[in-house]
Specification:
Length: 459
């Protein structure tokens, strides 16, 4: 293997450059050229396949900084459709013209879904990433426990899980955590701490929405910010029970902080954050998210009188407010845990290609005796019997739906990731860079400007 390609697909994370860096470092040791493909799979669908050499003369380009968030290669949500043969043939030709002997896709469950057709063209492995922490398995044969149903009233298939095994051990998880997750939790937990003190001052109820789609890992990890209640998509919300808990806590401490995952569902399984019909002042249709839907639910259930009675002259509507942590979760410098593990996984992906693996996934494993280590598993382990990859959910054993907090198992899960997740250099970085007076005089210099000068195209 003399020349391999690497691309970053799907939504970005803060640790992508660290994974690329890990791959390039390993490739330099074994004298393999690494070609970065621009904007994920979009590069392969572009007639001239924009790309750049990441390690000319087996030294990495200076723009490749593992402490910089995002990806210097650019990311897109373009995906590989296995049924689009014409497009696949073109992609195949471009891979050949680029003279690649193997391909590393840095991606999540969506990328995994498109991996199979690529593996038929070129040895391809996946280095995982996603802030959602949903690429992985709670136990080894979890993918075999999906059931597919064909509902006549709506097009397409519906998937549901059969019963999960009752025994669950965090040591048996496949891909314990994905790079990007720790930083997303760090940002969310920091935000929660900051919102707490203002909620305390103003005697308010704060609802903080975090990302994660239908997986509640970010919400679970946000327990480090000590919210009073954590709502995850895996546990349907009972609005009466929730309103009672909010009132109880409010009576005691005159403020409540609730964290909700963006994919939370009500008791009927309806996603609260899905499109709700409402209009802005101009009459345009607006979409509102999970936190707004939750706020409306609490305003209705708790009512103005409760807040008046407890010393506020304001309505429930002004006492209960929402904030989304939003894309700050996905950006900026990765914390040490993410940087380190991402680099390990990038290096592992190169080794997997050198060993002749194809359609395999580099994974981060954890055991009580060894701590974290990297490994690899066949991509088939992650696919159900119809070939579909499902996002990993928070296992029921990790969450206490009554307390609306991580369970003891959930806490056991979080500890290995977060106990030393932040390095001294992460703290020092803030001290040295945030109020650097030079920031006031210099414009931000985007790395994209330099990268664009390095991009080459197929003739
Ligand atoms: O999958 C990562 C993620 O950040 C999700 O948590 C979130 O729902 C989604 O991507 C947002 O995507 P976009 O930035 O494309 O709106």
């Amino acid at each position: 293997m003399r020349r391999i390609g690497i691309l970053t697909a799907g939504g970005d994370t803060p640790a992508l450059n660290a994974t690329i860096h890990g791959a390039v470092t390993r490739a330099n040791q074994v004298r393999v050229e690494v070609v970065g493909l621009i904007n994920g799979f979009a590069a392969l669908f572009h007639p001239r396949a924009p790309h750049l050499l990441l390690n000319p003369l087996f030294g990495e380009i200076p723009e490749l900084d593992p402490t910089r968030g995002g990806t210097i290669l650019g990311a897109s949500r373009d995906y590989v459709d296995p049924n689009d043969h014409e497009r696949l043939d073109l992609a195949c030709r471009r891979l050949k013209d680029l003279q690649l002997d193997g391909l590393i896709c840095i991606g999540g469950d969506g990328t995994m879904n498109g991996l199979q057709p690529l593996c038929d063209m070129i040895p391809t492995v996946l280095a995982p990433k996603t802030i959602d922490n949903d690429l992985g398995l709670n136990y080894r044969y979890e993918a075999d426990h999906w059931i597919r149903e064909d509902h006549t009233e709506a097009p397409g298939y519906f998937y549901r899980r059969s019963e999960m095994p009752h025994t669950f051990d965090i040591e048996h998880m496949v891909n314990y955590a994905t790079p990007g997750y720790a930083t997303a939790v760090y940002v969310s937990a920091t935000g929660i701490g900051r919102i707490r003190t203002t909620a305390e001052s103003h005697r308010r109820v704060a609802i903080i929405e975090v990302m994660g789609r239908h997986s509640g890992y970010i919400a679970l990890g946000s327990a480090y910010g000590q919210p009073d209640l954590i709502l995850i998509p895996e546990s349907p919300i009972n609005s009466c029970e929730l309103a009672e808990r909010v009132k109880e806590i409010y009576v005691l401490q005159r403020n409540v902080v609730i964290v909700c995952g963006e994919g939370i569902v009500d008791e009927t399984g309806h996603v609260l954050g899905s499109a709700r019909l409402s209009t802005d002042p101009a009459g345009n249709l607006m979409l509102s998210g999970a936190s707004e839907a939750l706020r409306a639910m609490l305003i209705e259930k708790i009512g103005d009188e409760f807040f008046h009675k407890h010393g506020r002259n304001e309505s429930a509507g002004s006492a209960i407010f929402t904030r989304k942590v939003g894309h700050t979760q996905r950006g900026g410098r990765p914390v040490r845990f993410d940087r380190f593990q991402a680099a390990q996984l990038g290096g592992k992906a190169v080794e997997m290609l050198l060993e002749g693996q194809n359609n395999h996934v580099a994974t981060l494993q954890w055991s009580r005796t060894e701590g974290f280590y990297v490994d690899s598993y066949s991509g088939q382990l992650f696919r159900d019997q119809w070939g579909k990859i499902h996002a990993r959910n928070v296992h029921p054993a990790m969450y206490d739906p009554h307390m609306m907090q991580p369970s003891p198992v959930g806490i056991e899960y979080l500890l290995p990731i977060f106990t030393n997740a932040i390095g001294d250099d992460d703290v020092e970085y803030i001290r040295q860079t945030l109020f650097d007076s030079g920031n006031l005089f210099r414009r931000y210099h985007s790395v994209n400007t330099d990268i664009h000068k390095r991009i080459r195209f197929l003739e």
